[in-house]
Amino acid sequence: MIAGSDIVLERLLALHPKKIDLVLDRVQRLLAALGHPEKKLPPVIHVAGTNGKGSTCAFMRAMLEAQGLKVHVYSSPHLVRFHERIRLAGELITESELAALLEECEEVNGGQPITFFEITTAAAMLAFSRHKADAVILEVGLGGKYDATNVIEKPRAAVITPIGLDHAEFLGNDIAGIAAEKAGIIKKGVPVIIGAQEDLPRDVIVRRADSLGAPVVAFGQDFFAHQEHGRMVYQDMGGLLDLPMPKLFGRHQIENAATAIAALRQSDWVSDAAVEKGLRTVEWPARMQRLTHGPLVEFAPQGAEVWLDGGHNPHGGAAVARALADLEDRADKPLYLISGMLANKDATGYFANFRGLVRHVVTIAIPGEPGSLGAGALYDRVRAAGLEASPAEDVEDAMLQVAAMSRMDEEEAARILICGSLYLAGHVLTENG
């Protein structure tokens, strides 16, 4: 049965010919017509970056909720249902409220050109303005300066997670220019928390912050984190915290967690106990997520580990490869990738991170996604990265191929990572129940 919100969302896709068109005029016009809900929100933490935005937001939400606070969250894209993008005081928006909000925004917009992301962002802000909460975590959709979320005049803090190359068709291939676009969320006098960065993007962000008198709190300078004896050690000017390892797996998640802690400690929002509880309870699907049961998992070789990750650019691929190398150090298992990617991604750059680590890559087209590379085209990209590969019809066929290869090599316990796209991750979560 098709939900009412799905019908409205389908109509909204036709309001502007471009999927993405980075200007603020249209969303500002609609927000004004709606009575400026963006000016009636609880304190906002605005988050931009190329990688780690979602995980950092998830850590902040978990820690704030562990403190007993109510938190609104806006994130994108969704994995299974659009409702995932809008969380009201801890709960996903209901179908009835989402449908009503979308229809209200559609009516007020009056058929004028506006992108899907812009009108749904306006709907989220309208929802946030009507529900009491203690904080809003607002994740940038794309870029920063001209993203539809960049309409908050005075957020409590701006957070910029690691910056790399992605969405080149909109942001280009100049890392300094991309950093400047992300730094566009920085506001005069508002603290900016900078996650782990390469020197060039960090310098661009710091210059922008300095020009606006925005205090800078930077990873590797003002706060630090590392793993030690199976624990996470965090340190800033407020002291040292001996913490449990984050529930989200991977070394990069230590850095994301540290950025979240720095942002919340800067605003004196959470206790040390809330930080610890948040690290233990955080949930964020499709980020090195272990799949332990379900129909798709049953197709895997007996005793195999099955993991799922939605990273889709070279920087994200590097983080995932490091996480897999750490798993390899703990338990030596042959590694196979099952991957689908969008045509606009640097697939060869992504897979280059896995040289010397992966036994074989099975490529598929992302089901129902017109922008996906075909299995054969992705096979060519994987081979160009220097890895062994073969195409498959779908995830089930790919699992069966891995099982056959594992039997042929007389390997009983393989490690399988399904990866390359959040769209593929959403499909897998849906099909796997």
Would you write up a description of this structure?
- The protein has helices at 4-12, 25-33, 53-66, 95-109, 116-130, 168-171, 175-182, 199-211, 251-266, 272-281, 314-330, 347-352, 375-384, 395-408, 422-431, and strands at 44-48, 71-74, 86-88, 91-92, 135-139, 157-160, 192-194, 216-218, 223-228, 231-236, 239-244, 289-291, 305-308, 335-339, 360-363, 389-391, 415-419.
- The chain is globular, with a radius of gyration of 21 Å.
- The protein contains 15 helices and 17 strands.
- Strand 9 (223-228) and strand 10 form a beta hairpin.
- It has two domains: 4-281, Mur-like, catalytic domain (UDP-N-acetylmuramoyl-L-alanine:D-glutamate ligase); 289-431, Mur ligase, C-terminal domain (Protein-Tyrosine Phosphatase, Chain A), CATH 3.90.190.20.
- The mean pLDDT is 93.
- With 433 residues, the chain is of the alpha/beta class.
